[in-house]
Amino acid sequence: MLLARKRVAGKDPWKAKNWYTIYAPDMFEKKEIGETISDKPEKVLGRKIETNMKELTGDLKKSHIKLVFRVKEVTGENAYTEFFRQELSRSYLRSQIRRRNSKVDSIFNIKTKDGYTLRASTSAILTTRILTSQKKAIREIINQELTTISTNNDFAQFLDEVTSGKMSSEIYKKARKIYPLKRVEVTKIKLVDKPKSKEAA
């Protein structure tokens, strides 16, 4: 996987190859996020590049939110990407769990208003251990809230809810009625399927 970075100055040992500038998706204002090299443009298609919200927005508080984009189109020496995955860094997640804390992990498939299927992973962090029945109730509330948010928002709006922290906050408010949680995190969002109109585009 490529890491978002600028080209390092120096002599290019592959004179027959070209550098392609990689851009973030429309929802991130097509910001330039890095470069890749290839002898053929078709070999650039499908390549993945990792960056984070700090690089995209300048917000230092969001450096723990990692994003992976996938090249979907190459025009000239420009490579345009689509969203592939968003996840929280492992170091950030470890920092949220203290000794004697426990967590309830969940994975759900959800669909946005405009037809994108996503796989959402969440963690509800608690200060103590709870009953299996309470875990089940927490998962049900998280699933209900994720479904409500996804069906009422398109793909771009849904991702904004995730990366802004609004979604975690809303889920936390509902789930803490079952048990006094420490916090809730949406730990990963992965693209599973796109609507047919987007696949043909």
Structure overview:
With 201 residues, the protein is of the alpha+beta class. Helix content is 28%, strand content 36%. It contains 6 helices and 9 strands. Strands 1, 2, 3, 4, 5, 6, 7, 8 and 9 form a 9-stranded mixed sheet that branches.
CATH homologous superfamily heading of the largest domain: Band 7 domain
| CATH topology description of the largest domain | Tetrahydropterin Synthase, Chain A
Portion in strands: 35-45%
Listing every helix as H and every strand as E from the N terminus to the C terminus, the arrangement reads EEEEHEEHEEHHHEH
CATH architecture of the largest domain: 2-Layer Sandwich
Task: Choose one word for the global shape.
Answer: elongated
**Radius of gyration based on Cα positions:** 19 Å
What is the count of DSSP helices, taking H or I runs of 4+ residues?
6
Work out the count of structural domains. Answer: 2
Could you tell me the number of beta strands?
A: 9
- Helix amount: 25-40%
| Low-pLDDT residue spans | none
Largest sheet: 9 strands, mixed
End-to-end Cα distance, whole Å, is 24 Å
Mean pLDDT: 90
Kindly list the characteristics that best describe this protein.
single chain; 201 residues; alpha+beta; Tetrahydropterin Synthase, Chain A
Secondary structure layout plus pairing:
Elements (H helix, E strand, L loop, with lengths): L1 E2 L14 E6 L8 E7 L9 E5 H5 L7 E11 L2 E11 L1 H7 L5 E10 L5 E10 L5 H20 L3 H9 L2 H10 L7 E11 L2 H5 L1
Helix pairs in contact: 3-5
